[in-house]
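Mods, move this if it's the wrong board.
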Amino acid sequence: MVRALLAGAKTQTRRALRFPEDAARNRFGRPGDLLWVRETFFAYGRWDIRFNLRKQHAEWFFTDMTQAAGYAWRYAADDGQGADPHARREAGAAPAWHKRPALFMPRAASRILLEIVGVRVERLQEIGVADALAEGLPPGAEDDPVGAYRGVWEGINGPGSWEANPLVWVVAFAQIPLAGRPSRNI
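Not the wrong board. Structure tokens:
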């Protein structure tokens, strides 16, 4: 979906309501809110072992040295290349390029900023052709976008999730160009 965002093809997303917490408020934001996108990326750094007092055991910890070394982060969605084939999770190893999951992306590494432009609630199966296309479907889905979106939904949420026809948050957004980013952290 990162490629679809970068291409401007994905301008909305759907998320199932989770009762009772979601019934009172939308945890995905309101119009005007800004969202930064995390994606799989490559960072220059090294692995170390540290003792975690709370967990009472040693654990691996990645030290991101990308900016300090004068480099820019690399992104898996661009070409999938970026990790050093000799990089190892080994204490004391020299810094190298390591593939990092989106979960660990720092805010400073994010290159996609979205502004929420609309939020509504509807049943999943109320999705129309235009909205299915706005979900950033892969090429070839133009013949049956709703059917293609059904496949995407079930791939993420499991078999039978489409038939359940849950209430969903529909969050529409617009990408903010890199030059238009605010200078403050969000």
